[in-house]
Amino acid sequence: MxxxxxxxSPPEPVVRCGGRKAPVPxxxxxxxxxxxxxxxxxxxxxxxxxxxxxKSTAAFGILLRAAGREMKVGMWQFVKNVDGRxxxxxxxxxxxxxxxxxxxxxTWLSENIDEDRxxxxxxxxxxxxxxxxxxxxxxxxxxxxxxxxxxxxxIAEVLDExxxxxxxxxxxxxxxxxxxxxxxxxxxxTEMKLVKHPYREQGIGAQPGIEL
Length: 212
What we know:
alpha/beta; 7 helices; 17% strand
């Protein structure tokens, strides 16, 4: 690529009629970006739902971006076992970000539904306090749709708490089968569609760095 064709090189002066050169516009140098104070931000409710893979993964992208802006971000996982330690937990520790597992593994395979219901209610109490406290800029409630779908949490109470969150606070919720009431409330809803899956088509199990 020649210097003239390089899009990053300064533009050459344009010669006008009469041999006079037009002034070359000065390039604005990007300065450091500063996150606006909360009262100047519009807090969003974001929902990642659908049967396809990528709901939690997309939420991790928000977590990474917010952490990069030095915003206070936290994630609470309603299905991941409280004793589990996955790749995201290790990475979050290095970033100084809190990821809190609240569940007991795959709830739909559980043999103790009453215990899972109690865990979900205890987990929501923790999330509710985090919402009310105003400490976090971004709160991610991973797989919250499941206890809502199973009727373990009062959806009206959950939505009310989210609606009354401090100004400028973003809330991200993931999980399949998001309730219509949650979809209606949200500012951004993305439905992940499954086209192909390595386990379904090829019997390939979960891979480190991809699923765990």
